[in-house]
Design goal:
Blueprint lengths: L1 H26 L17 H22 L3 E5 L2 E6 L4 H6 L3 E2 H8 L8 H6 L5 H10 L6 H16 L6 E2 L4 H15 L8 H22 L6 H4 L4 H33 L10 H6 L8 H29 L4 H15 L3 H6 L1 H13 L4 E7 L3 E2 L5 E2 L4 E5 L19 H7 L27 H18 E5 L8 E3 L2 E3 L6 E5 L9
Parallel strand pairs: 2-8
Antiparallel strand pairs: 1-2, 3-5, 4-12, 5-8, 6-7, 9-12, 10-11
Helix pairs in contact: 7-8, 7-18, 8-13, 9-11, 9-13, 11-13, 13-16
This protein binds protoporphyrin IX containing FE.
The site of protoporphyrin IX containing FE has 27 residues, from α4, α6, α13, β5 and α18.
């Protein structure tokens, strides 16, 4: 009897897997030429290797050769790459959706990945708050600023002797604590347990996504119960929910006590309190915090790392940057106006971002059958993206392989507004565009400028002698050198600047 049940359960599981596999395989019919298909490459080993190591070349040469959109075969399926001339078409087309794509590629429905669901939930609570309350909010600047000094003291210390940074934690730690001052507020921003949970979740989450992509799509819902990074996500989510629940209860209790005493309740200016004020918000506070960390930490930390490397490689930038920061702060005081005047720093940040950009932008899923301007049909379910290799195109950027900290400052002074860090354009679209343009880009700019201002005045930086650092390509993405050897030394207090 048991044998029969087992064999029938086994049979049904097999049928389900095969059906899923068939659906997955039949979904995968290319419309445009596949640029990484090779004769005899039955297991797609060469296709994926080429995609992982040479996506930029595949895109540039493929678009030039075919004079039409192309298809990239990626370990996660087929991706259509459109030429950059179609950027505006993508930005304005309502049959294309960014959030659907992210939900699918980043497994929003999986247990432990609820933070991803919360980030892109259909009620848009979080994204709306980022747009309306976080972007260009000058009131948060002193709070972020106050947290950076202690964070640097904690992670970077105050030794006057050159010493290596712990590249992974000493960079993410600074960004995480600066961001937490506004995401979670005073109770937990610098709390070691909370910081450990949040940073670990971000690391585990992206590792879990990579881990799952290595499995065939129909099997992922099953194997995620056993894979180590996915399991760690479930564990960390539970911890984050418990910690945040305590903070929410504490704030609710404070409000009740104040009311009983006829006093005004304490006011908080952070994302936690903004979300507590949204009527009918059903998202657990822990999920909201992890959603924010997921969107904000990895992206901003990666750029922070690249800027540190670029400044270390170009020490001639340090003095002009210090002078600009000092003048901006003394002319305007600490606030949005001063940060806006840090134009060279803005240019350096944008140029560093150009060193590690994705080779495609505007990634979207087709949610209803749609047609390109030339009439070619894009069926529902296709994954598309737009070529962004113009960032290395010599017709767009002179000497594109070189790092020039003044590049965007010069373009800005020549009247090109899109040269500001927070602007996205066809030639530099790392923040995307249209209705899904990154709502956190102003906050990222604020955070980075404040962190870098502190660092430039408080530390000297250099790469370890003989060490050269290069970003690493990984498919259409690039990551900063993961083992960069950066050394720091606390500067003598000069009294030049007091934050
Ligand atoms: C240097 C740092 C950052 C980079 C490079 C970056 C990049 C991006 C990109 C490329 C998109 C997709 C846009 C599109 O396809 O049109 C995006 C979306 C998003 N980003 Fe950022 N981001 C950064 C920092 C942040 C920060 C600090 C936050 C939060 C405070 C944030 C929150 C979001 C959210 C919520 C979305 C989804 C928007 C939507 O789906 O409508 N990002 N970001």
């Amino acid at each position: 009897m048991l044998d029969q049940i087992f064999s029938s359960a086994f049979t049904w599981t097999l049928i389900a897997i095969l059906a899923g596999w068939y659906r997955y395989a039949t979904k995968q019919r290319p419309i445009f030429p596949v640029v990484n298909d090779y004769q005899g490459d039955f297991f797609r080993r060469k296709a994926y290797r080429e995609y992982n190591q040479n996506a930029k070349r595949l895109i540039v040469e493929g678009l030039a050769q075919h004079g039409s959109p192309i298809t990239l075969r990626t370990p996660d399926g087929l991706k259509i790459v459109l030429p950059s001339a179609l950027s505006d078409w993508v930005k304005t087309n309502r049959d294309l959706d960014h959030q659907e794509l992210i939900r699918e590629e980043y497994f929003a429905g999986f247990p432990g990945f609820e933070a991803q669901y919360t980030l892109h939930a259909p009620d848009n609570i979080l994204i709306n708050l980022l747009r309306t309350k976080l972007s260009q909010n000058g009131e948060i600047i002193p709070t972020v600023n106050r947290h950076i000094g202690p964070a640097l003291q904690h992670y970077w210390g105050d030794s006057g002797i050159w010493s290596p940074l712990d590249w992974e934690s000493d960079t993410m730690g600074i960004i995480s604590r600066a961001a937490a001052s506004i995401f979670v507020g005073p109770e937990k921003a610098a709390d070691t347990e909370w910081q450990t949970v949040v940073q670990a979740y971000v690391r585990e989450y992206f590792a879990a996504v990579r881990e799952l992509h290595a499995w065939h799509a129909p099997l992922r819902r099953i194997v995620q119960w056993f894979l180590p990074h996915s399991s760690a996500c479930r564990e960390l989510l539970g911890q984050a929910r418990a910690i945040m629940q305590q903070v929410v209860q504490k704030r609710e209790q404070e409000a009740r006590t104040a009311e009983q005493q006829g006093l005004a309740a304490p006011q908080y200016n952070d994302v936690l309190s903004w979300t507590m004020q949204v009527p009918n918000n059903k998202h657990p506070a822990g999920d909201i915090q992890l959603a924010l960390a997921m969107a904000a930490l990895f992206t901003t930390t990666e750029l922070f790392r690249q800027i540190l490397i670029d400044i270390a490689k170009h020490p001639e930038l340090v003095e002009p940057l210090r002078q600009e920061i000092q003048k901006s702060l003394s002319d305007h005081g600490l606030g949005l106006a001063a940060l806006a005047k840090m134009e060279l720093l803005d240019s350096v940040m944008k140029e560093s971002q150009r060193q590690i950009p994705v080779t495609v932008g505007l990634e979207r899923k087709v949610i209803r059958d749609t047609s390109l301007p030339d009439g070619t049909r894009l069926p529902k379910g296709s994954h598309i993206a737009v070529d962004s290799t113009d960032m290395w195109n010599p017709e767009v950027y002179e000497d594109p392989e070189a790092f020039d900290g003044y590049r965007f400052l010069k373009r800005r002074h020549a009247g090109e507004n899109a040269s500001q860090f927070v602007q996205s354009s066809r030639e530099h679209n790392v923040f995307g565009g249209g209705r899904h343009i990154c709502p956190g880009r102003f906050f990222a700019a604020t955070e980075l400028k404040l962190c870098l201002a502190h660092i430039l005045f408080e530390y000297d930086l250099r790469l370890k002698e003989g060490y050269d650092s290069q970003p690493m390509a990984h498919g259409v993405y690039a990551i900063v050198d993961p083992v960069a050897q950066l050394e720091i030394r606390r500067r003598e207090k000069t009294g030049e600047l007091a934050f």
